[in-house]
Design brief:
Elements lengths: L9 E4 L6 H10 L5 E3 L2 H6 L2 E4 L5 H10 L3 H5 L5 E4 L1 H4 L2 E4 L19 E2 L4 E7 L9 E8 L15 E6 L1 E2 L6 E7 L1 E9 L2 E4 L7 H12 L3 H10 L1
Parallel strand pairs: 1-2, 1-3, 3-4, 4-13, 5-7
Antiparallel strand pairs: 5-6, 7-10, 8-9, 8-11, 11-12, 12-13
Length: 229
């Protein structure tokens, strides 16, 4: 259990998964204070919330349920940003929980599905890499970047760092895409929820720009930009 606090302006949700410290350091390097917590009140009262992102959807959702955070996260109205797995947890479901044939139930399609937080109406499927090596690991460019405040100062062709084998398809909620064998969502958004499949905390100056854009984001500005999408 993380240290109990009464309030924090910026929080990273402690999902019990890896990568918490590196996200915290990335935020602090920009001069912002941030707290890692699973305290319900602290999360609800924060101005900005970050879902971190390394590990499996199955493990992360198990932890989120054990911490009684599902309804809390679903009810957030302030800006929320997800990194990699954190983005995937925002969707309806993920097939990352797929069992191998040696684990049994290989014919049970429902056993492959991990229900997620259902914040953005899309799903996570295996990345169609078309023979390219998986996981998709390394630097790749964004394509079809939409006008969204999270991408202020970011352009098509800019490089970001990816590590993943699962991805969201391109949909009406896609605000940036990427190519790796096929086209997938590099970023998705709905209302106050924004997710990046890449790792901003590992993406050098441009990744820092994404984080800064988020932490400086005005909710009114976000609402207006979404109307214009």
């Amino acid at each position: 259990m993380t240290k109990v606090m009464t309030s924090a302006k910026n929080v990273i949700v402690d999902t019990g998964c890896a990568n918490l410290s590196s996200v915290k350091f990335a935020v602090e390097r920009l001069g912002f204070e941030v707290t890692i917590t699973d305290d319900v009140t602290v999360i609800q009262q924060a101005e900005k919330v970050i879902f971190p992102g390394v590990g499996s959807a199955k493990h992360a959702m198990k932890n989120i349920k054990a911490k009684n955070l599902v309804a809390v996260l679903q009810g957030l109205t302030q800006p929320v940003l997800g990194f990699c797995l954190g983005m995937q947890l925002m969707t309806e479901s993920s097939t990352e929980g797929k069992k191998s044939s040696t684990e049994g139930n290989s014919d049970d399609k429902t056993s492959n599905i991990v229900p997620c937080l259902n914040l953005i109406p899309t799903t996570i499927e295996p990345l169609k890499a078309q023979g390219n090596r998986l996981p998709h690991m390394g630097w790749n460019t964004l394509t079809q970047v939409r006008n969204h405040p999270i991408f202020k100062g970011i352009s098509e062709g800019d490089y970001f760092y990816f590590v993943h084998s699962f991805a969201a398809p391109v949909s009406e909620y896609t605000i940036a895409s990427c190519e790796y064998g096929s086209t997938f969502s590099a970023a998705i958004a709905k209302d106050n929820f924004i997710g990046c499949q890449f790792h901003p905390e590992r993406s050098s100056a441009l990744g820092s720009k994404i984080i800064q854009n988020f932490l400086e984001l005005d909710s009114t500005e976000l609402n207006q930009e979404l109307v214009n999408l």
